[in-house]
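Reply to thread "Modeling small-molecule complexes from scratch"

Following up on the discussion above, here's a worked example others can learn from. I took a protein sequence and the SMILES for 2-acetamido-2-deoxy-beta-D-glucopyranose and predicted the complex. Inputs first:
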Amino acid sequence: MRHLTLTLVVVIVVLFTKDANSSAAIILEVFDENVFVPKNGFREQGLRLHNHYRSLNKVSPLKLDHELNKLAHAHAEKLASWNNLTASETGFDENLWSHRGELLPLAKDLEYAIRCWYTGSTTPGRVQASVDHFVLRSDSVTSVGFGVGTSEHNGEGYSVVVALYQ
Ligand SMILES: *[C@@H]1O[C@H](CO)[C@@H](O)[C@H](O)[C@H]1NC(C)=O
């Protein structure tokens, strides 16, 4: 009987722990999407592409920075609602990109933005950009933060990508 009780307690504790873990995981996932925690989302994909271009230019890779992600996100959302492309007043080096038309997945916006900054590509059309060519090829920056903001104006999608560097 004692043995059985002990076993039951152990089983319950295990169940409890498992449950607590999985709800923590769910909360974390939601948190990751809404806030700016770098996991395996569009920012990591963007970072890989950005560092690929940097390696072609023989400059050191960048890492993602939480604070820069936050600032870039806030500025991208602001520009999306402002419906224009204006430099931020953060004091950081930055690159901007915007697109009018059908809204795309965030990772696509970021991919097109980075390709545009490095190659001048205007895919997928109706693209506007503001590029700091020096910072793209500079070893003096070590971190980057990405933000994508989206909105709609006159029934048309408007997305803005902001990259801030330090
Ligand atoms: C962008 O829009 C904001 C808000 O309307 C305005 O304050 C800002 O001057 C605009 N920037 C440009 C470059 O037009």
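What I'd highlight from this example: The chain has one domain: 42-165. Confidence is low (pLDDT under 50) at residues 5-38. Questions welcome below.
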